[in-house]
Specification:
Two copies of one chain form a homodimer. The first copy, chain A, has helices at 10-20, 35-48, 66-74, 82-94, 142-160, 178-192, 221-239, 251-262, 276-281, 300-307, 311-317, 322-336, 391-411; strands spanning 27-31, 51-55, 78-80, 108-110, 114-116, 125-130, 133-138, 165-173, 200-205, 210-218, 243-245, 266-270, 291-296, 340-346, 361-369, 378-386. The first copy, chain A, is α+β, with helices and mostly antiparallel strands. Chain A has three domains: 10-160, Molybdenum Cofactor Biosythetic Enzyme, Chain A (3-Layer(aba) Sandwich), CATH 3.40.980; 165-245, Alpha-Beta Plaits (2-Layer Sandwich); 251-411, Maf protein. The interface between A and B is large, with 85 and 85 residues.
Chain lengths: 422, 422
Amino acid sequence: MLTPTRLDTNSLYITELLNNIGVDVVAKVIVGDDRGELESCFSQALARADLVVFSGGLGPTEDDVTRETVADHLGLAMSEDPDIIDKLERRFAARGWKMPEVNRRQAMVPAGATVLDNPNGTAPGLWIETDGKGVALLPGPPRELRPMFERLVNERLQPRASGLRVLRRVLKIAGRGESRVEEVAQPIYARWREESPQIETTILAMPGPVELHLSTRGSDVAAMDAALDRAVDQMATALGSDIFTRDSRSIEEVVGELLRSRGWRIALAESCTGGLATSRLTDVAGSSDYVERAIVAYSNNAKIELLGVAPELLQAHGAVSEAVATAMATGARERANVEVGVGITGIAGPSGGTPEKPVGMVCIAVAAPNNGAVDAGYATHVRTMRFPGNREHVKAFSAFTALDMVRRVLIGAPVNPDWIKK
Amino acid sequence: MLTPTRLDTNSLYITELLNNIGVDVVAKVIVGDDRGELESCFSQALARADLVVFSGGLGPTEDDVTRETVADHLGLAMSEDPDIIDKLERRFAARGWKMPEVNRRQAMVPAGATVLDNPNGTAPGLWIETDGKGVALLPGPPRELRPMFERLVNERLQPRASGLRVLRRVLKIAGRGESRVEEVAQPIYARWREESPQIETTILAMPGPVELHLSTRGSDVAAMDAALDRAVDQMATALGSDIFTRDSRSIEEVVGELLRSRGWRIALAESCTGGLATSRLTDVAGSSDYVERAIVAYSNNAKIELLGVAPELLQAHGAVSEAVATAMATGARERANVEVGVGITGIAGPSGGTPEKPVGMVCIAVAAPNNGAVDAGYATHVRTMRFPGNREHVKAFSAFTALDMVRRVLIGAPVNPDWIKK
């Protein structure tokens, strides 16, 4: 886990289960198989937390030192557990092998520790209670760690949990950069500092959405819920239709539900996004109910043949223009015979930019029923954006913003994100 | 980064660059935006390491506390840097905005610190030398952190490093699961244990490729290079055309270069992947030279109208069938008038599976010039796969495998990956 190639996913799983029972994770530490480092981390963790969870380092080899380090630090003698030896021997025998001698180390148990059964591997886990604190030693492979940790949570941690709970709400915001969210949010959450239960705020920006996390901790769940509801309402009033979800849904889920509830279908015409917007939409299970088709019209030919974009339009305005985006959205909608059409054309970079049409400039058009009613004809909305970042970011921003524009058009909200080119 | 949803990727990048100049990473610590926790970690890190690198917490908002915490702990006064203010103001002005007052915090610099320019964002980095040790404060977003850290390594860390180097080679493998790579690789790398310089091996599996990492550490770079070359050759002989790159390229880059070198263009017809294969292909800069178009034919109608799939074929075999995949590939190729066509149709799940056509079953077809020559007519290659995992995994596996099939067809390699349905 200290190499450049290993992503730590166990800690996400552990965090989720702990948060669910109101346990806050205050720190995560990754160290090598080094007794000195490990012991120093363990001692610091014990000093500041009530629960310390190890994952990994329980294997049979000499570089697996977690068991010994923890026992030594707590001053617990170790002895071989005949039950574990028995299970290990049977496990190997089932494969027609004799247990290698090295595996004997996995049967060493510190005095007073509870052995956690591992049906999916050789390393049993350990649970130690010391000075009112809990220490869990879990194996590293996720398929061994997960069921073991789940049982530990249900049988031992949940009953000890303080009764304190952490409640969290996530608002996801489109069309504003991080600082323009902060500008609006800061005066609001500054007022919450004096209130009880106290609400913590975190702002997270990614290429596309900005997330506003509100959380509160305590035991009076009803009061906490009510406080969070009030807080969310205040933010919602301030940020209006820029908030696309209050319940952790992705933009593609939100758009999918808007389409589904209207019984409408969508067709997309993508150029610079290369299929990314449609791929996002189809990440949602059941999206085949409302995604009819998409055309990735990378060439001018494809725009003309498959979307009916007039060659004169391409000639007069260039492929990256509001006129062509509009023609793409309309062509996609009409040819697929669906209610909603999207056209995306832009310059993803790194090359292809000009002073007039720089890298990051993207035109997005949405064609949809006028005033939300199919019999009132169709209207087209088009905007030119200027997104920051490299090719990958421009693609991600463009796909996200196109889906957000569909959302805004469907709910009748103004289409005026931060990224619009002045 | 302490929530259940945020994967830490910055530390991998930082580790890689540090390893390259022979610097070992002894610990990684993740803490919240909490001054107490942060200060306690900082003080411990300073005690045991020569270099401490922070990422994140330099934003404009009140929960960004890294700058203040580090300055306080080192007893350094902070003052506003007029140059930073100037850059920030110009950055906002370029977008037609006034700098929000909150961004002023980003211009605070501890006494004696060097400001690290951030061309990709508002937060400048900081470099502080203290008691012969180095402390780097870097912004969290990868596209801001990476170029800044690269410069820091080249200009300040490399000259201070020990001279020991870590060299690494990465082989990327398609069409084999992790254990089928290990089966072939293990007898080879077992032999390396006795050799010097010693080569370490790591196998990493993801939804699609499997990576084989070979690394060695020492000071004799020529001998290390030669040893790695020999090792790579032995693996390449054993794994043959399943290796799609020896130099860290992605499958979409490899396919792009094969198309470009032949002057060929490609058109895709995607169903269950929803545009993901085309989005991957167009992640590569310059891909508009060879990606002509794609049709995301989610509905049967779209398959019939846009790809010329015969309704009788859909009726007789169902949309997920080798016959329909083949018709999609051929239709895409012919209608776009290009050399290579791809058809992907499958069941991404979670619903829609049947005992005969279960979730994860995907048919992939590639139509391309016979024997690599355009004048020899066209041939179609089709396979039915069975991929593991959830909707996201099936999409990722399918898009990856479709691109790998294009690669195999273009280089005349056998199309027989592990995932083929028996």
